[in-house]
Amino acid sequence: MTDPTLDPALRSWVESANGHPDFPIQNLPLGVFSPPGGAPRAGVAIGEMVLDLAAAGLALPAPLNAFLAEGAAARRALRARVSALLAHGATPHPEWLHAQREVTLHLPAQIGDYTDFYAGIHHAVAAGKLFRPDNPLLPNYKHLPVGYHGRASSIVPSGAPVRRPNGQRAGAEGPSFGPAQRLDYELELGVFIGPGNALGEPIPIASAAAHIAGFCLLNDWSARDIQAWEYQPLGPFLGKSFATTISPWIVTPEALAPFRIPQAPRPEGDPRPLPYLWDEADQAAGALALELEVWLLTPGMRAAGLAPHRVAASDARHLYFTPAQMVAHHTSNGCNLRPGDLLGTGTISGPERAAYGSLLESTAGGREPLRLPGGETRAFLEDGDEVVLTARARREGFVPIGFGPCAGVVLPAA
Amino acid sequence: MTDPTLDPALRSWVESANGHPDFPIQNLPLGVFSPPGGAPRAGVAIGEMVLDLAAAGLALPAPLNAFLAEGAAARRALRARVSALLAHGATPHPEWLHAQREVTLHLPAQIGDYTDFYAGIHHAVAAGKLFRPDNPLLPNYKHLPVGYHGRASSIVPSGAPVRRPNGQRAGAEGPSFGPAQRLDYELELGVFIGPGNALGEPIPIASAAAHIAGFCLLNDWSARDIQAWEYQPLGPFLGKSFATTISPWIVTPEALAPFRIPQAPRPEGDPRPLPYLWDEADQAAGALALELEVWLLTPGMRAAGLAPHRVAASDARHLYFTPAQMVAHHTSNGCNLRPGDLLGTGTISGPERAAYGSLLESTAGGREPLRLPGGETRAFLEDGDEVVLTARARREGFVPIGFGPCAGVVLPAA
Q1: Using 50, 70 and 90 to split pLDDT, how confident is the model at A305?
Q2: In CATH terms, are B4-106 and B114-411 the same topology?
Q3: Which of A12, A272, B340, B410 is 20 to 30 A from B110 in CA distance terms?
Q4: How far is CA A313 from the centre of its chain?
C-alpha cells in the first residue's frame, strides 16, 4: 500500500460513503454539478453526497478541461487534499456537501472530439456475424484498434432522456423514413483524455497512459435499422449520433490503480501488434478488472413494482486492445487529442450470451427476444424502457469502487 | 437587384478591392485574424486587406460562433454596415485595415463537430471503382447523403503545413507501419452552421438553408494506403484525421445569392428522395454555380521558377445533394448541430478526368501519374508539394467573387 488514499481502513465523516458501493472515500471521482438554483461547479462524489470543491477551498474550472490538461501530478495533489478533508477525524463540514439526488449532474468536460473504438472482440465477432455472416472479423481487426469518429454534440449525462430517432431504413419496396424499430444499447467504457498532444506529434505507447485522465461508462445507443442501411462505405452516422450517454463522474487512474491487471494474452495464432502498439508495461498492467452490467426496466415492470432486470454481466477484461493502445494508435498519424476528448472502447461483450453487451447480440439480431420478469419480452428497446449500465471494481484487500449509474429512458420518436 | 450590397457598380475606397478576383466589396467574407503582435479578432476580407471590425466600431466575438448563431438577420445587418463603410464615397479609414499578407489568419469558428459527406457522385463512382470494382456505388447512395463524422481537432486554416502521416498499411507479409505512400488531396466545399438545433429536434428541409452561415473550401487530405487498410467496417479514421485544411473566410449566403442555381435534375431512373429530403425551393435554387480548381506546385517546379499547375477544374454543380439536404438529413434523427459546426460536401469531381478532385481518381489509383510542367510526374503527393484549392462564382451581370486560397504544403513524416 503505497498510496494512503487507498487504505481500506480509511473511512469518511460523510457517513454514506462508508460501505458505499460506488463512492467510498477510496474513489473520489471528479464531476461537474449544479446545486438547486446554482451555477455549474466542480465536485467530487462521496457516498450519497457531492463535495463542492470551491466550498472546500479547492475550486477547479467547470467544465474540468483545464484541470484534466494538467495530468497526474495535479490529480494526485487534489486527491490527497480531498482525501484528507473528507477522512474520518478531519473536521466535518456538512456545509460543503450537497445530496447527489438534489443536484443536476453535467458532463464533466467539454468534449471536443469523441472517438469510438471497436475493441470488444466478442462483440466484433457476434455483431459482425449479423452484418457480414461470411466475414464477421475483418482482416485488420487484430492488427489495430478499429475506431471511428463519433458525434460529440449529442453526448449527454446519465439521466437525460433519449428520444427514439427517426431515420431512413431499407425495405422491400425501397427505403422508408420513420421511427427506428431496432433501437439498442451498447455497453462501453469511456476514456477521458488528460494532457493532449500537438498536431503532428504522436504519443508513444509507453507514455500513452499518462494522457488518460480517467474513465466513465458509456452507452452508445444504436438504431440498428438506420445503421444497417447507411453505414457503407463510410461507417456509422445517424444510427449512432442521436445520443450517447455517459456516467457523469470521471473515475481516475489513481482510484483504479489497485484494479489494474495484465492484458489477456492473445490466443495462439493471433498476430502480435506492431511495435508502435506494443509496450511490456502496458501489457503487464494496462487492462482493468471491472465488472460491467446492463439493467433494463420497462414501463410494464415499473407498473408491476418489479425491480430492474440484469440483462448482461460482462467485464472490461474482454477488451482486445488496452486504452493506451487506443491512444497510441489514435495519435500515430499525428492526430491531436485535446484535454477532455472522449474515447469509447467499443461494446464490451463476453464470449457467452449472458455477457453480450447489446441486444443485437443477446437477441441474435432480434430473432430470439429476451424474456423479462413479469412475462414481457424484448427484441429491441421500446418507448419508456430504461437502460442502466453499471461498473464495479473489486480486488481482495481493497475497498471496491463503482462508477455510478449510466442511465437513460427511451422517449417516443418526435 | 434587390440587395444594394451586390450592385456591380459598387466600388470601394480600398483600391485593391476593385477588380479583386476574390474579395471585391460585393463579397465581404467573415474571418478571424491576428495583426502582428495582436490578439485574434474578427475581420472582413476586402481586396488585399482585412478590415478590423472592432476598429470600425463593429466588434464581433472571435471565434465567430456566437455571431454565426444569430443567423441571417444579423449577417445582413452587418453586411449593410460594412458595405456602407467601405464603399467609395464613404470616409476612407486606412487605419481600420491590415494587409492580409501581414496578418495571421485563424479558423473563423471553434468547430465543435465536423461531418464529412460524400455527395460528389462522380467521385463516389470513380473512387468506389478503385475500392470496390464490382460495386462502386452502394445501394444507399442515391437515397441519402452518405456522410461520416470527421475529426474536428485537426482542422487547420489555409497556410498551415501538413505533416505526412505515419500509419499502418496492408502488405504481402502482413501490415507494416511507416509514412503514408499514397497521400492525396480532396477538393471539397465546407459549410458552416449558423443557428443550431436542440437535441431531438430535427431541422425540416424547408428551413435548412436558414441554418447555414456560409461556405469555405476544404481539403480533406487523405492517406489512401492507411485508409484502405483501416476503413472497414467503421469508415475512414486515421487516413483522414491527420489534417483537414479550410480556407479561412466564411463566404456568406448573402454574397453567394446571385450564384444560386437549380439542383441538376436527377438522371432518368434515379430515385426521388424521400419527402424529408425534398423541397421544391431547395431544388430550384439550392445549388451553387462555383468553379473549383486544384493547383499543384512541387519543389522541383518551384526551383525551376515554374508557376503552380492546375491539376483539376471542377464545379460545385456536380454535387448530387444540396447543402440543405445535408442539414436536413444530418438532423433527421434528432442530432444537434451547433453554431460553428462544419460540414464537408465530399469530393467534388466532374465526370471527366480533368475534373477529378483527387489524385486517387485522376491517376487511376496511382497507375497513371500526372505529368507536370518541367517533366515531373505525380502518382501521389510528395514531400514539399503544395496543394492550393480555389473557388470562383461568376454570373452575367454580377461581380465575380472568390473564396481565397485553401493551401497547404506537405512536410515529411515525423
Answers
A1: very high
A2: no
A3: B410
A4: 15
What span, in angstroms and rounded, lies between the C-alpha atoms of B40 and B31? 10
From the list A176, A335, A411, the residue facing B238 with the nearest CB is: A335
Q: Counting runs of H as helices and runs of E as strands, what totals does chain B give?
A: 10, 26
Give the one of B112, B201, B230 whose C-beta lies nearest to A146's C-beta. Answer: B230
Sequence-separated (6 or more) residues with CB below 8 Å from residue B305 = none
Q: Give contacts of B 325-364 with A, CB under 8 A.
A: 329-330, 332-338, 341
The ipTM estimated for the assembled molecules is 0.97
Helices (H), B87-213: 121-131, 205-208
Cβ <8 Å between A168 and B143: yes
User: Average pLDDT over chain B, rounded to whole?
Assistant: 97
Question: With an 8 Å Cβ cutoff, are B113 and A152 in contact?
Answer: yes
Integer Cα distance of A149 and B337 in angstroms: 16
Q: Which of A123, A211, A309, A318 is catalytic?
A: A123
**DSSP bridge pairs for A296:** A309, A387
Beta bridge partners of A64: none
Listed as own residue / partner, the contacts of A169-174 with beta carbons closer than 8 Å and 24 or more positions apart are A169/A225, A169/A226, A169/A228, A169/A229, A170/A225, A170/A228, A170/A229, A170/B139, A170/B140, A174/B143, A174/B271
What would the pLDDT profile of A42-68 be if each residue is shown by its tens digit? 999 999 999 999 999 999 999 999 999
Domain boundary assignment for chain A:
4-106, 114-411
User: In CATH, what is the architecture of A4-106?
Assistant: Roll (2.30)
**CATH superfamily assigned to domain B114-411:** Fumarylacetoacetase-like, C-terminal domain (3.90.850.10)
Structural contact between residues A170 and A290, judged by C-beta atoms closer than 8 angstroms: no
